[in-house]
């Protein structure tokens, strides 16, 4: 028997939490758009939406929710555990907030590869601009860069006043309360707009245990670079002098040497229950250089899969021998410095800047519409003239795909793939060639959905194409994503629609060429929600609702 739960999100306020029932099979997320914006969708970053891209919450699969309307996402969370988050996926709205955690816990029969922590703490870190997300969008439309952010937030709060010359009085900051001698699981997500951040806790080691749904080989870090869109779990033991507070810091990485960057730090407080003194002194050291590429790459390479541990299933994570599977298809996806296309400053992959059509791709396929998009996206880089296009990559269902992200810019890039996790088998500086495969990690590469690509370098990933649908590959930096650095990959079942893929939901919204199919919606926005966590959106701070579930196994 299927069980379900509902979280209603209507927008604004601090953090609300809804705890899921034991062993849920279907998640139900009810969204009401009470903003004036004409577009709104909610995406669950890292949740694979097995055979159900209808629920992915991005422009290629869903029509936006109009103002005053509501829409209900209904999806299964099977064969996944770990730390994820949701966010509004259109028009830089994430820069205004609206994100929250999605936590999927192990079933009781699958042991966790560490002792049960004494507590679970979620931290959202990210850069922040005083300008609204619409003003930021206007800047990009005018061909401008967003520039240095005005601050780094931790759980949507400003920095502790660690420096009286930099931090004004009266700012609200995050305090994390802990008990001496206990161990806590910290789930840390970079939900910012465009800045990679280095995360650390003063005088405390952080034992990395999980990255986006995969248990990791456990090792201690004093600091870790967390790039935009990435999520990690650490175990942190409260083993220091309990009479004083300690700094929790998120500071910029891979930025210029401009002096203002030194003034932008997110600072929260770790507070022991019997602390008698405030945190003091300088912030804990970050890597020596804002732009130390080799330190960060070596750190990234050290993050590996725990091959002996189970996760959503009891069998060990390493039992899927990805290194022995023959590659059936290769995409080399190259980004470069912004290019002028039709007089506009745009971002590209393989010199194509994605232009979303008014009709979502998956809906166009369902209704046999032609001309909405083309499947001519180049699978290899070229020197072709740059262009804007609604162009899609074709991939073979049940194939084994190699994707190489080539970053020919001076900024670190972060790429995410919806619908899947991939094995991050290699990264290096310079140009990728087929000979680079000799350096691939074919045994314990971390499996995740978001990976960094270092400036002037490449990252290679392998993915088993077992999830039918149309799935987004995108730059997680919001400014690059907005300016066209994305593409969709079409994984179609050759046997046809509704064979392995779930059918389109009854509440499908229609737009673009299919707008005439949309039925009127009766709005009852004055009624109060009963039995659900409710929050309201504003243009500055969007609601956060915690989604906590227990993993399930799909057939």
UniProtKB/TrEMBL annotation:
<dbReference type="InterPro" id="IPR045087">
    <property type="entry name" value="Cu-oxidase_fam"/>
</dbReference>
<dbReference type="GO" id="GO:0005507">
    <property type="term" value="F:copper ion binding"/>
</dbReference>
<protein>
    <recommendedName>
        <fullName>Monocopper oxidase-like protein SKU5</fullName>
    </recommendedName>
</protein>
<comment type="similarity">
    <text>Belongs to the multicopper oxidase family.</text>
</comment>
<feature type="domain" description="Plastocyanin-like">
    <location>
        <begin position="359"/>
        <end position="492"/>
    </location>
</feature>
<dbReference type="GO" id="GO:0016491">
    <property type="term" value="F:oxidoreductase activity"/>
</dbReference>
<dbReference type="Pfam" id="PF07731">
    <property type="entry name" value="Cu-oxidase_2"/>
</dbReference>
<dbReference type="InterPro" id="IPR001117">
    <property type="entry name" value="Cu-oxidase_2nd"/>
</dbReference>
<dbReference type="Pfam" id="PF07732">
    <property type="entry name" value="Cu-oxidase_3"/>
</dbReference>
<feature type="domain" description="Plastocyanin-like">
    <location>
        <begin position="28"/>
        <end position="107"/>
    </location>
</feature>
<feature type="domain" description="Plastocyanin-like">
    <location>
        <begin position="120"/>
        <end position="275"/>
    </location>
</feature>
<dbReference type="InterPro" id="IPR011707">
    <property type="entry name" value="Cu-oxidase-like_N"/>
</dbReference>
<dbReference type="InterPro" id="IPR008972">
    <property type="entry name" value="Cupredoxin"/>
</dbReference>
<dbReference type="Pfam" id="PF00394">
    <property type="entry name" value="Cu-oxidase"/>
</dbReference>
<dbReference type="InterPro" id="IPR011706">
    <property type="entry name" value="Cu-oxidase_C"/>
</dbReference>
């Amino acid at each position: 028997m299927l069980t379900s739960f509902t979280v209603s999100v209507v927008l604004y306020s601090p953090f609300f939490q809804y705890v899921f029932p034991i062993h849920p099979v279907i998640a139900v997320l009810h969204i009401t758009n009470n903003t004036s914006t004409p577009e709104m969708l909610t995406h669950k970053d890292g949740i694979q939406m097995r055979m159900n891209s209808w629920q992915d919450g991005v422009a290629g699969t869903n029509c936006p929710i109009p103002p005053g309307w509501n829409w209900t996402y209904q999806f299964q969370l099977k064969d996944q555990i770990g730390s994820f988050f949701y966010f509004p996926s259109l028009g830089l709205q994430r820069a205004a907030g609206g994100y929250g955690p999605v936590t999927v816990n192990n079933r009781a029969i699958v042991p966790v590869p560490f002792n049960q922590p004494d507590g679970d703490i979620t931290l959202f870190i990210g850069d922040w601009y005083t300008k609204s997300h619409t003003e930021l969008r206007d800047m990009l439309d005018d061909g401008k860069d967003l520039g240095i952010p005005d601050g780094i937030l931790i759980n949507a709060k400003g920095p502790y006043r660690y420096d009286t010359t930099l931090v004004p009085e009266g700012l609200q900051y995050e305090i994390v309360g802990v008990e001496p001698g206990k161990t806590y699981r910290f789930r840390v997500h970079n939900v910012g707009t465009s800045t990679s951040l280095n995360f650390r806790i003063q005088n405390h080691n952080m034992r990395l245990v999980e990255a986006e749904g995969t248990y990791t080989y456990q090792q201690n870090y004093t600091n870790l670079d967390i790039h935009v869109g990435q999520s990690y779990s650490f175990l942190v033991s409260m083993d220091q002098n309990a009479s004083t507070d300690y700094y929790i810091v998120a500071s910029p990485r891979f930025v210029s040497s401009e002096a203002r960057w030194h003034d932008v730090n997110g600072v929260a407080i770790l507070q022991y229950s019997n602390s008698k003194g405030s945190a003091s002194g300088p912030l804990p050291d970050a890597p020596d250089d804002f732009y130390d590429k080799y330190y960060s790459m070596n750190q990234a390479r050290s993050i590996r899969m725990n091959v002996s541990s189970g996760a959503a299933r009891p069998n060990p994570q390493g039992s899927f021998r990805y290194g022995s599977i023959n590659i059936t298809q290769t995409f080399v996806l190259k980004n470069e410095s912004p290019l002028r296309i039709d007089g506009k400053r745009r971002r590209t992959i393989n010199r194509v800047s994605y232009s979303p059509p008014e009709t979502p791709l998956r809906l166009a396929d369902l209704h046999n519409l032609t001309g909405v998009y083309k499947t001519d996206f180049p699978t290899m880089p070229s020197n072709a003239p740059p262009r804007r296009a609604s162009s899609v990559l074709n991939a073979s269902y049940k194939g084994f795909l190699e994707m190489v992200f080539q970053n020919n810019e001076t900024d670190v890039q972060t790429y995410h793939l919806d619908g899947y996790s991939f094995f991050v088998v290699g990264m290096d500086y310079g140009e990728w060639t087929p000979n680079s495969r000799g350096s691939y990690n074919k045994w314990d590469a971390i499996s995740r959905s978001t990976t960094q690509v270092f400036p002037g370098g490449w990252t290679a990933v392998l993915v088993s194409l077992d999830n039918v649908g149309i799935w987004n590959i995108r730059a997680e930096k919001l400014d690059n994503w907005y300016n066209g650095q994305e593409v969709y990959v079409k994984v179609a079942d050759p046997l046809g629609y509704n064979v392995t893929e779930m059918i389109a939901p009854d509440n499908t919204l229609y737009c673009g060429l299919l707008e005439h199919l949309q039925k009127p919606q009766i709005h009852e926005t004055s009624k109060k929600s009963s039995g659900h966590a409710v929050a309201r959106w504003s243009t500055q701070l969007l609601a956060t609702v915690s989604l906590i579930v227990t993993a399930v196994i799909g057939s």
